[in-house]
Model the fold of this input.
Amino acid sequence: MEDAARLLQLVVNGAAAGCIYGLIALGFVLIYKATEMVNFAQGDVMMLGGFVAYSLIAHWGLNYWIGALLAIAITAAFGFALDAIILRRVIGQPQFAVVMLTLGLGFIFRAGAGIAWGYDSVGFNTPFTNKIANIGPLILGQDNLSIIVGTVLLCAVLYVFFSKTRLGVAMQASSQNQLAAYYMGIPVRTVFSLIWAISAGVAAVAGILLSPVSMIDVNMGFLGIKAFAAAVIGGFGSIPGSLVGGVIVGVVEQLAGYYLPAGFQEVTSNVVLLAMLILRPQGLFAELQGKRV
Amino acid sequence: MRYLFRTDYKQDTALARHGGDVFWYGLLTLAMLAIPLLMGEFYVGELGGVFIFAIAGVGLMLLVGYTGLISLGHAAFLGIGAYTNSVLLERGMPFVVTLPVAGLFTAFCGAAIGLPTLRMSGLYLAIATLAFGSIVGTVFQKWSSVTGGFDGFAVPTPTIFGIGLDGATGIYYVSLVVLIFVLWISANMLRSPMGRAMVAIRDSEVSAQSMGINLARYKAMAFAISAGMTGLAGALFAHYVRFLAPDAFDVLLSVQFVTIVFVGGLGSLHGAIFGAIFVRLLPQFIAIVRDDLPFGIGRLPGLEPSLFGLVLVLVILFQPGGINGIWQKAKHAFTAFPFKRQTSSRRQKSYAKSERLR
Done:
């Protein structure tokens, strides 16, 4: 019983961490599906979102919910500008140019955040900090629960948005076939910038949800590397896949930290990633397609 | 303008295109040989560092600039070369043996990681090499019986035929020789069917395959050669820093290597050299002007990586040819004077190539 409860506890904690990876991966996947770019600075955008929320809530004393919503909106606007001003210019260059460009942007964001907010870890009070929920024999932190619940809610909102609203359907159309979308009168460029905005907003949500569990600091963007494993497991083109991938990575990581000697936990996500790429590079949730020449 | 008149079939396969090449490269080599006699220990050491990064840069250039495969894990290969060389030296092997062995072993590691990742391209390769780099970094930390872990590893002084290479000058000359060797191999390879196949793969995998190029074989070979050259650079790097710490070979170093390739100019060996000069001298430049900058900018932590990031972003946005592109344009303006026009160097319109369907 003891062991089963402990195992369950580990799994829930892992799932909470995994939801964060999944949310970052979701950001990658949204952008990749639409524009075939990969934003290596996604983790750093999450860091910026966390810091903006910290400024609004801890410095200006806004209510947690209002501050969080404002932070998400600000980060989303930042994502929109990022695409409209910078990323749009490199369309047509080889894909690795985009990889390097976003890596470079990540360094700049990190330095910018360091200048604006300093290099110390910061945190702010949330309704979930240091509260505990008892579910049967399980003792869970409300912070971990809030991550899981928040992720599920966000996914539901995104699902409704993409399937029910005009703009969401237009986004799906532009992702599937740009040219046809142009012909149908969809403003594809603006739609792509809006997708960047959504992706940045999702990253901000991840940053805010993560803040009660771990402090916000300049280097939290390196979580983005773990999120790659999540995206690859999901097949790098599937939105539910990225979340499932994130949860898998999070749980495996927690279990490895418990059952394996110290030092293995840090590399598990990378090992899972490489194994996945070697054994099933198309991911769990992707179908194979041929290329027309 | 120089017009090449071919009067001999040998001219088509010669390494040097014309007498000017022989003269200028010969002069450059002589100048490089003479520098330790003329300049102080500090400058010789810094130039040695530039040579070592240029060796790795040439290796990565073959992979990124000519084969079109990106690697964000080359710091791991540098580390493998460095540790292989140092561990073998400590076990009593001579430097003339450990240097090539370090290169060969790293090439083997490169092939081992290259083979399974061949089915991927572009993006997936970048992610896979990133993961590989971080795994190898952890191995360096945890395998402390061999690498010394976080305590570090003092690199023994190498000797070549009884001459100890303890100063900066010794490493300078060895690095120079290795750099020339690596450049010679690369220049020859790029004129061979192998090099042509690599460029074909870069420009279109599908077309290359339909021309009968064995993609897997050439990609694995490109990966192995690139890793091997980086391993050689790593062996020299171990002697350059003299004390190996596992956290030196992190993602930041890999990004620096790719910066060499991009800032120098994709698809040219000159670019690898230019890029190495830039990447090695930028920190020195920052160190010199640090105190003179206004508003305390010089004292910001993280100034260096952010400057690397900024330069990378600016180069990709505004000068995709890199430093080599600027040089080519300047050369063209000079040789074609006064007939240079704005349109001479206008960027060609290019279209995104989809990698999604394959």
Remarks:
- The longest strand of chain B covers residues 153-154.
- The first helix of chain B runs from residue 10 to 13.
- Chain B touches chain A through 55 residues (CB under 8 Å).
- Chain B has one domain: 40-299.
